[in-house]
Write the structure tokens for this entry.
Amino acid sequence: AGAAFSSFFDISQTSYLLDFLYNFTRLPEERRGFDTSVGQAASAQKELARQVLKDEALSSLPAMIKLHSILPDDTSLELHVFTVINEETNEAHNIVVWCPRTAPRPLPSRGTKGYIGLDITAKKIVWVKDTWRIHNPLIEPEDKTYAALKENNVTQDYLPDFLYGGDVPTDAGN
């Protein structure tokens, strides 16, 4: 989700490109831009997600949303699990998703995707907004804005209930 540029150089006269590629391929995945907070759901996580969907569907979903559009009937299909850290409580939430409900159309975008997810930690159905954000200390992260709106009772009539959010940890495995 980015590009790097340098001044022009003659590739036949220098090893800059080879040095870069050599070093880049040895970086850990998170340093190369991989989202280490998302992985393939294990069988136990899939089963727990199906149970959450079964238990919460009637009270949490509009009638027009069909259960098989959240989790497929075919149990052999791959599901993914997001690890989202609630930055207020430092609690990790594991959220199982199948496929995005919304995805960007234009090529130059933040790659925002929306999922109906099954939080198997809190045992509830949630909306997951997955996006790249600008990492700039002058720009407030979006989850902080939603939390401030909720704290001031602005969200009750205008936005869905905000639960938690945060950036992908540098090392999501720990």
In short: The first helix runs from residue 16 to 24. The beta strands are 38-40, 80-86, 91-97, 113-119, 124-130. The longest strand covers residues 80-86. The chain is about 25% helix and 20% strand.
